[in-house]
Amino acid sequence: MTRDIVKYPHPVLAQKAARIEEITPEIMALASDMAETMYVNQGIGLAANQVAEPVRLITVDISGPDKREELFALVNPEIVSAEGETETEEGCLSVKDYRSNVVRAEKVRVRGLDLSGNEVCLDAEGLLAVCLQHEIDHLEGTLFIDRISRLKRALYDKRARKWARKADQD
Predict the structure, then answer these.
(1) What is the pLDDT of residues 73-126, one digit of tens each?
(2) Which among 85, 130, 141, 168 is least surrounded, fewest beta carbons within 10 Å?
(3) Annotated binding-site residue numbers
(4) Which CATH superfamily is domain 11-169 in?
(5) Which residues are catalytic (predicted)?
(6) CB 115 within 8 A of CB 26
(7) How many beta carbons lie within 10 A of that of residue 11, not counting itself?
(8) Is 70 tagged catalytic?
(9) pLDDT of 168
(10) How many other C-beta atoms are found inside a 10 Å radius of the C-beta of residue 118?
């Protein structure tokens, strides 16, 4: 089932997501819904709080949205080490019509659980490393626009307020 993606400045996006204590059928259904929602919206990653579920769950498929060959979900993911630095252009399904360069770690090691409850440890670099950092940031209540310059952020916030006023008038 496809879910609605919440958009900035929805408060759930600034909320730290709760740890998942048990992988229930509901969590598995949420992961499935998130994958479908991610693909329908042409994304390569999605955090549960982006569909208004503030729990520590992400779905990722950097082969997507067209190929859909490398889908995985991580429960309670955390970055356990990071090294190097890279700057890449990022966008976000929850941040309407905006992309900006963001500095992140070049390589990361991420630990979490798969949907069967098995521990997973991923060493990632390149696009996968950036995607994992982006989605795990969501679980901490951080958006990529929180990592850009104050000037760029102020300009985006001004545009977002204008869109909100226009939507209220419609």
Answers:
(1) 999 999 999 999 999 999 999 998 899 999 999 999 999 999 999 999 999 999
(2) 168
(3) 92, 134, 138
(4) Peptide deformylase (3.90.45.10)
(5) 135
(6) no
(7) 10
(8) no
(9) 82
(10) 8
Active-site residue, selected from the candidate residues 22, 69, 135, 140: 135
Q: Which of 51-55, 158-162, 166-170 has the lowest mean pLDDT?
A: 166-170
DSSP 57-118: EEEE-TTTTTS--S-EEEEEEEEEEEES-EEEEEEETTEEEEEEEEEE-SEEEEEEE-TTS-
Known binding-site positions for Fe cation = 92, 134, 138
DSSP β-bridge partners for residue 87: 103
Return the ∠ at Cα 153 (arms to 151 and 155), rounded to 5°: 70
Report the mean per-residue pLDDT for the chain: 95
By the 8 A CB rule, do 60 and 47 touch? no
